[in-house]
Structures are given as structure tokens and as C-alpha cells.
Design goal:
Helix content: 25-40%
Number of strands: 24
Oligomer: single chain
Strand content: 15-25%
Structural class: alpha+beta
Radius of gyration: 23 Å
Low-confidence stretches: 1-25
């Protein structure tokens, strides 16, 4: 690798067997859907976090201005239509009529204005990184119209206005309060297809059908249950027993076996709660020496066996990351970066050159690595890899929410891990990782603490442009700088298989709101 050349270049959920009304053998309405959740959500307010466990549940309770279809293109949600000014500076949304919050209060444009100005631009890592300093104002000229005015052309608003990126909150509950501590974060009031019923922490969250949902004919299910099962393999057993109906991360060895039964649908999914085109990523705390040295970071990256991670950790459901932006966004991905190969000998040499030499015990450096138990296998492989080059890593497993607080809020780490999802556009899921303005105590923001004014400027230029080829050039320039400076360790581009019974239909597996139109084709 030419490091120097690139400067330019449950609790018995099986109980749920609700009766469905059938018409000609088709059960369009009724029944229950049990969805596997990987961990406790921590919060049910998706506007204050990008954490996938929270969105797994909350995205069925709230709505965004738009939804994204299976091709990740915007379609109506709370906004029934919109226009974009030719200069790209003004977006006007006409809101759906007759929408009410789950407590019966009417939804209006004031809710949208409040949510963006007082919540999303403060607490949502991706939305904050994308809109802060660019969005001039949100106007609400009448109860059913919202106008976004930008300081300069902005090309990526619609793809970032769905329920995962920008869920709309009720102003009448949150205005004038501490949003992070508000009781409604645990007892949410949304406009979505399902209303909150009960949260048994660590076990399950139960939602019920919103009978007054503003979309005709939706939802079909009477009950939506999120059963917390951290181990994917155990979740497969629950799926086969009928105790879980929807598993969003079927392990690779089980995919073909379940397909062979003929009883399940297995579909590849690139998107879902928390975004799309995710890259499993480790990162150093750049404020702590010697991790602030480029050569040390290059050495660590060179010491990581990412091919092994694809097989042993991702179960073959992924591929080695070749650039900071996923190959799933081909117009922005850089295809020409030199490959970083597993090379412990080269890593040892780089550490020697950096002056990080072995002590009498053979150890060059000791690093702490707090990590969620659900992601611990990546940390364990890194620990073993880095031991070979004289770096002792102390893995500190903890519950997901505790790991997020330790890393992103308190910044008590040397190494950390996150699955950073790139989103349908780099402005949504990539920018938040690198711009210096997003070094904030916010989950899944710029966790490494990376600062480079040139990178800030290039992201800004990409945001300003409405020309896709030009935006792509800016993103490729950014990747060349990042590849040289290695502020993050891009490990594996992951993908996953979603599994569910063949009798379950119209599942929106690419969306956080998976069950809005889902129905059972036979009575259950």
C-alpha cells in the first residue's frame, strides 16, 4: 500500500396468536407480528439518536415527511406532495390532511418546524451534520404547509426526511422541556401506524394498531411485538418455532437451510433501521497519543485481518471494505484506492518507525476497547490481531446503551466500534463521521474526533452541488485524504438476510417501518 502517494490522489411472546378475519383464504387484517430485536432500544425517541435498536421500534410509532421506497426514492408520508425550487434552495411540502397524534391532538406544520429546529438539529447525529449551517429556516405559513429555506443549493433533503433520519415529534408535548429527559421518550406519542402499549425493559416492547391512522387500509396487524433476542442463532430457533415471525439478521449458515424448508422467505436487505449500506467500523480516539500519529493508525489497520472478519464475524454476509464510502453508492464510492492487505510484518515496521517500540514484556502499547456485547466478536478479533504486533487490547464488554454513552458521550476509550451506515446519500450517513462540527457528545457522530479543514470544505462543496457527477468527484477527493490519514478503520461492508414465514406479505424490509402494510395471507 502506498501510504505516501495518496496525498492527492421474551416473555412468552409465543402467546400471540390473534385471530384474523379471512376473505377467500386471504387474511388482510388482524393478527400479530413478532419482530426480533437485537437489544433493548434504550429510548423510543428516534429523533435523539441514530442507534439501530431504538429505530427498530420507534420507526413504527412515528412518521417522517417522506418514506423511501424499495429503490430508496422518496414517496409521500406525512407530506402528500412537495416541490423543489429550480435553484435548489427552497423545498415546499404540502402535508397530509386529517393526521392526528396518538393522543388525539391534530398534527400540523408547527410540529415539523419544532422538531427540526429544536430536536433534530441538536440531537440527531446524521441530520445535524447534514443540515447545520446549511438550513436557513423552516417556515410554517399555514397548518398544512412547511417550507425549508437553505442558504445555498442543497441536493439531499428528500432522502434524509424519512422516519429514520427525521421522525416528527409532537410539539405540544416536548416544547419548553428537556428533550433528552422527557418521559415521552419511554411512553411515546406518534402519528405512526402503531401506538405504544408496553415496554418490559430487556424483554419486549408491545405496540397496538392505530385505528385512526391516516393512510387508508393500514395497518393490517392488530399487534406488533418486538422481542429482544440478542443472539441471532437463538432468534432463528424462535423463528422456526413460530415464537418470532421476523428476523432481520439471519446468520449465513441458516439462510440456505431455511430456504430449503420452503416455509420461509429470505431476502437480502441493504437498508433498515439506522440506514443503509452499513460498514462495520473501528476507530481510535484521536485525542490520545500515540493514536494521534498517522503511522500508528496505518500500522493498526495493516495488522487487522479483515478477510477473517468477513468469514468469522460477519458469517460471510459481507465483504472487505475497500473505501470509506460503500460500494452500494457507486457514484460516490472511490474504486481506485490501493488495497490495505493484512500484513503484520509491515505493521511492526510502521510501529518501529513511529517510535512505539516493544518493552521488556514485548508490549508496545496498551489500549482500552469498550464495546457492546452484540459487537464483541469484532473487538476480540482485533485484540488477537493487535497482540501479534505488540499492542495489548483490553476489551470491555458492556450493554449497548452503556457502550454508546462510554464512547460517544463520555469519550472514555482508546479504540471503539460502530456500524456506521452510509445511508442512500453520503450527505446523510458519511458526512457525520468526518466533519469537525460533528465532534459532539452525540451517539454515532464523529466518534474519532477527526479534524481536517480540507475535508470539511469538500463535504460542504458536495452538499452545495446539485450535479451528481460533480458531487461524486468531491466525495472521491475526500476518500483519498481519508485513506491517507486513516482516522477510522473501515472493516467490513455488511449485508444481511431478513427471514419471515412465507405467509407474511408486504413487508417493507428496506425500511424502519417494516409492518405498515404487512399482513398474513392465512388466518393465524
Amino acid at each position: 500500500m502506498r501510504w505516501t502517494v495518496l496525498a492527492t490522489c421474551a416473555v412468552g411472546v409465543g402467546f400471540v396468536l390473534a385471530v384474523a378475519a379471512t376473505v377467500g383464504g386471504q387474511a388482510r387484517h388482524g393478527g400479530a407480528l413478532v419482530i426480533r430485536a437485537a437489544s433493548d432500544p434504550g429510548t423510543l425517541n428516534g429523533a435523539i439518536t441514530t442507534a439501530s435498536p431504538a429505530h427498530t421500534v420507534a420507526d413504527s410509532i412515528f412518521n417522517g415527511l417522506v418514506q423511501l421506497d424499495a429503490r430508496l426514492q422518496p414517496v409521500p408520508d406525512l407530506a402528500e406532495r412537495w416541490t423543489v425550487a429550480p435553484d435548489g434552495r427552497t423545498y415546499t411540502f404540502r402535508l397530509a390532511r386529517g393526521v392526528r397524534w396518538h393522543d388525539g391532538r391534530p398534527f400540523t406544520s408547527a410540529d415539523v418546524k419544532f422538531t427540526y429546529e429544536h430536536v433534530l438539529l441538536t440531537y440527531h447525529a446524521r441530520t445535524r451534520a447534514g443540515l447545520e449551517g446549511v438550513l436557513d429556516a423552516v417556515d410554517a405559513p399555514d397548518p398544512h404547509t412547511v417550507v425549508f429555506r437553505f442558504k445555498r443549493p442543497f441536493g439531499a433533503l428528500l432522502q434524509r426526511a424519512d422516519v429514520t433520519e427525521a421522525p416528527i415529534l409532537p410539539r405540544h408535548l416536548y416544547e419548553g422541556t428537556d428533550v433528552l429527559q422527557h418521559p415521552a421518550n419511554a411512553v411515546p406519542v406518534g402519528t405512526g401506524p402503531f401506538r405504544f402499549k408496553e415496554w418490559q425493559r430487556g424483554a419486549e416492547v408491545t405496540l397496538v394498531k392505530n385505528e385512526a391512522y391516516f393512510k387508508h387500509g393500514a395497518p393490517s396487524m392488530d399487534l406488533l411485538v418486538f422481542r429482544i433476542l440478542p443472539q441471532p442463532a437463538l432468534a432463528v430457533i424462535a423463528l422456526e418455532r413460530g415464537e418470532v415471525h421476523y428476523h432481520d439478521t439471519v446468520p449465513a449458515p441458516d439462510v440456505r437451510r431455511l430456504q430449503a424448508t420452503g416455509a420461509f422467505t429470505l431476502v437480502p436487505a441493504l437498508a433498515g433501521p439506522g440506514g443503509s449500506f452499513c460498514i462495520s467500523t473501528a476507530f481510535p480516539n484521536l485525542t490520545r497519543p500515540p493514536l494521534d500519529q498517522v503511522r500508528v493508525r496505518q500500522a493498526i489497520y495493516q495488522a487487522l485481518n479483515r478477510e477473517f472478519m468477513v468469514l468469522a464475524v460477519a458469517g460471510g454476509l459481507g465483504r472487505v471494505a475497500t473505501a470509506p464510502i460503500s460500494r452500494g453508492i457507486p457514484w460516490a464510492h472511490h474504486p481506485g484506492l490501493p488495497p490495505v492487505r493484512y500484513d503484520p510484518a509491515r505493521a511492526n515496521a510502521l510501529l518501529d518507525e513511529a517510535g512505539v517500540r516493544r518493552g521488556a514484556d514485548g508490549v508496545r502499547l496498551r489500549l482500552t476497547f469498550p464495546v457492546a456485547t452484540t459487537q464483541i466478536r469484532y473487538a476480540e478479533v482485533m485484540r488477537d490481531n493487535l497482540r501479534d504486533v505488540g499492542i495489548e487490547v483490553v476489551v470491555q464488554p458492556m450493554e449497548f446503551t452503556a457502550a454508546v454513552q462510554t464512547v460517544f458521550v463520555r469519550r472514555e476509550f482508546d479504540l471503539a466500534f460502530a456500524s456506521y451506515c452510509n445511508g442512500p446519500d453520503p450527505d446523510i450517513g458519511v458526512k457525520r463521521m468526518y466533519v469537525s462540527s460533528n465532534i459532539q457528545p452525540i451517539p454515532f457522530s464523529n466518534g474519532a474526533g477527526y479534524r481536517n479543514p480540507r475535508v470539511d470544505d469538500l463535504f460542504d462543496a458536495a452538499t452545495r452541488s446539485l450535479d451528481l457527477p460533480q458531487r461524486g468527484r468531491h466525495y472521491r477527493d475526500i476518500q483519498e485524504i481519508l485513506w491517507q490519514e486513516v482516522p477510522y478503520f473501515w472493516l467490513v461492508e455488511t449485508f444481511r438476510y431478513v427471514g419471515y414465514p412465507r405467509t407474511l406479505r408486504d413487508v417493507q424490509s428496506w425500511s424502519g417501518n417494516v409492518a405498515e402494510r404487512a399482513y398474513w395471507s392465512v388466518a393465524r
